[in-house]
Amino acid sequence: MTDSSNSTSSTKKSAFITGASKGIGLSVARALIADGYAVTITSRNAAEIAQVATELGAGTRGVACDVKDPAAVQAEVDAHVQAFGGLDVLFVNAGVGHFGNIADLSIQQWQDVIDTNLSGAFYTVKAAIPALSKSGGYIFTLSSLAGKNPLPGGGAYNASKFGLNGLSEVMNLDLRDRGIKVTQIMPGSVATHFAGHTPDAEKDAWKIQPEDLAQLTVDLLHMPERTLPSRVEVRPSRPPKK
């Protein structure tokens, strides 16, 4: 684990974001910083997360952490609470995708997807519950429309996102008496680096942009306390005709 920290102890609100060296996680970090939050951002890539934390500036902790390791996740959540005096928002975003016919999908690929997208989400939430209970915090899980729509070659990914949706719905029931809100965000096609894609400003212009989901996150945080959009499906408004 590597910690690239620009943090100082503070009473301001704070957020812990997994998978935040690029794409959706990074856009959410930027939006929350602009909204007044201190943030911890994580990634498995130590060099990338250190560079991003430096770019984001004061009030940012950048740590290398693999969400498949529950002890590492717990240590980093505890360090966040120590650095910032608490935790208000958890954005569960770390994810991988291996795709292929179920007959050809390897056991290692299956385990990598399930252990990251589903078990990793559980480990992250489990580590954060005590701090979020104290703050009356908010958990966002970044799922997908693949969490309700099976696709050929999506055996592992579909299973992980169907499972994440179920986990998120149960978390809502189990944690609301602690004052914790849970929203699952389910986007369709997003212009990110996911699964080896290289975003192209022109070709991906029709897709959801990472900053769109970041804006959605901030908007949800500003909803009236009495109201909870527990599942938000997000689609490109004008996808190409097939």
From TrEMBL:
Name of one Pfam family that matches: adh_short
Gene3D superfamilies named among the record's database cross-references: NAD(P)-binding Rossmann-like Domain
Coiled coil: none
Keyword Oxidoreductase included in the entry's annotation: yes
One GO MF term attached to the UniProt entry: oxidoreductase activity
PANTHER family, sorted: DEHYDROGENASE/REDUCTASE SDR FAMILY MEMBER 7B, DEHYDROGENASE_REDUCTASE SDR FAMILY MEMBER 7B
Alphabetized NCBIfam families for the sequence: PRK07326.1
Descriptive protein name: Short-chain dehydrogenase
Species name: Deinococcus indicus
